[in-house]
Amino acid sequence: MKDTFFFVFAISGLLIGFGLPGITLLLTWLTPKTVIEQYVRPPHFSEFESIAYRHFPSSYIRTLLFAVAISIPAFRKVRQFGEIHKNVPAWFNIASRLFVYVVWGYCLIWVCIFVVLLVMAKIQQ
């Protein structure tokens, strides 16, 4: 049982440690300039944020904000993005939704596996 737990934990750590930053970097590079110019400015962001989110490393935060706003309607209201999901290219819309849903899904699955392994370990004691 301990070997299984370690294996699941190690694979999850590798996927999170290398996969998430890699995919975020790819989405950051592929973010269309028109989207950046249209949304990385007031009233969506403050003057400081508008400057900071155009440069590395805070551009990762910008990408995550765009991806979550495209995928989850409630988050569009926070930054007043309006219909951002209709104003971005279809490929970016799909990529953002896949990114957010896969990350949330992966985390949910990992938590479920972790809980099952803990329960099984407790039963065997």
Amino-to-carboxy terminus distance:
11 Å
Please give the largest β-sheet.
none
Write down the oligomeric state.
Answer: single chain
Order of helices and strands: HHHHHHH
How many domains, as an integer? 1
Parts with pLDDT < 50 across at least 5 consecutive residues:
none
Look at the structure and give the mean pLDDT: 81
- Can you tell me the overall shape? elongated
Q: In total, how many beta strands? A: 0
DSSP helix count?
7
Assign the structural class, choosing from mainly alpha, mainly beta, alpha/beta, alpha+beta, or little secondary structure.
mainly alpha
Rg from Cα: 18 Å
Percent helix among the residues? over 70%
Strand content: under 5%
Verbal overview:
There is one protein chain. With 125 residues, the chain is an all-alpha fold. It has one domain. It has 7 helices and no strands. The protein has helices at residues 2-30, 33-39, 47-52, 59-71, 73-78, 84-87, 90-124. Helix 4 packs across helix 7. The protein is elongated.
Question: Which structural traits does this protein have?
Answer:
125 residues; mainly alpha
